[in-house]
Automatic annotation (TrEMBL):
Molecular function via GO: protein-lysine N-methyltransferase activity
InterPro entries reported in the protein's UniProt record: SET_dom, SET_dom_sf, SETD3_SETD6_MTase
Domain SET: 100-318
Protein name: SET domain-containing protein
Top-level taxon in the UniProt lineage: Eukaryota
SUPFAM superfamilies, alphabetized: SET domain (SSF82199)
Amino acid sequence: MQWAFGMQVELYFGQIGGLGFYSPRNEMEAQNFILSLIKSALSHHVRMQTHALQDLRDALINRIHELGTEFKVGNKIDINYKCDKEKCLLQWAENNGAKTRLQIAYVEGAGRGAIAMEDMEVGDIAMEIPASITISEDLVYKSDMYQVLQKIDGMSSETMSLLWSMKERHNCNSQFKMYFDTLPENFNTGLSFGVEAIMALDGTLLFEEIMQAKEHLRVQYDELFPALSKDHPDIFPPELYTWEQFLWACELWYSNSMKIMFADGNLKTCLIPVAGFLNHSLHPHIVHYGKIDSTTNSLKFRLSRPCSVGEQCCLSYGNFSGSHLITFYGFLPQGDNPYDVIPLDFEVDQVDTMVECPLSNWTTHMVRGTWLSENQNIFYYGLPSPLLDCLRSARSQMPFTKTLVISFPYFCVLHTPYIYCEVLASHVIKANMEVDKEILEDLQSTFNAMMENLSDMDSVDRESSSWDVKLASQFKEMQRRIVSSILTSCSTGIKLVEHELSKCKAEE
């Protein structure tokens, strides 16, 4: 699960966050949670506490404004792009009870997006979509195909919805015709990468992710077709259920669906007309949008930070890596993504001998861009502590202290001469640094080899290249930047250690 992946990354790198908080999204979410607690407290206030709570609320609002200003991303609207179909969809949605303070426009570098028509504050509702116009599994249950699909072992509600949409998009009398009319002929996600783009990614994590995803989908398709079309051609016309049509529907549901909790407590995967134009951002305006309001029976997209008139209003699709976003959504987000990590695959037999610490039980390790850490000092080097601790434990049974000064009582026992304590402390410090030097040199060797495998694509003409080759090139550039930062940190760390070792030798 991607949620579990995001949580794992946050815990793994939590000790070395350089921003003072893990990510802008998490910070915004935390501050809005505190605001909700204050709002609840004010509704049950004690008079003497009211002013204090209001002062705290004002301070939080000011902090959110500061964060919003700090991470505000400019956008350029393409005025030549006519959004006629999108305007028709918006009008249809409003006629069916939707409310919005956003308009649809074409944003350069992002495609279609939702632009604020007025200034909006924290807590304002940017968009409200009634549950009655959401596309969910409930529509399948009312269709003729449900009687067939429910008899298939292992058939999920998500797959049912996907198969329903493959046919419904061609229904001229569909309630959702205007919605389907706005959908692109090609979603341009990693699932549609051509041979040239795939080959360019050989040896990368993204290559493996795309190939595994496509293989999974192909197996799923072959289990259903052409059998369903042969047995029920009236319900599953073969011309509507080709592999290409199936892949299109998969891309639609991967890139546009949302998990929504309905008023009856059921969690359903849905397509939300109009809301699908809200793009993803590492600095989202909207972070909570997955629950139907039982009072209005609608889905409300409430702002967690201000959005100015003319600004693109964004939400968060989740704590996803760049490889996941390319594979299932077809883009890389702007800015530094803290979830862009490189997993490390190595065996360490002595993991159980590690010194006791809260993170000593990590069985998988990873790295990310070291610019995200402010602690580049000796014993840290901008690298994740769980990784360094694991490698240190595998090399040495000696207790490791991340300091250049060790107090003598740490070593001295009763009647131990002072001079022996001094020598022992010096020996431990020197041994620790020698271990770190070996570790950094090994990591340097590993990532030098990785950099060689990530050969650049300078020979690629990016102006004339296809969309998928351009996206593959962007991903490899991002990976090279991460690896380059690790190599720089290793090199700088080795110099730091060598400098301290030379000082130790001079003092001997």
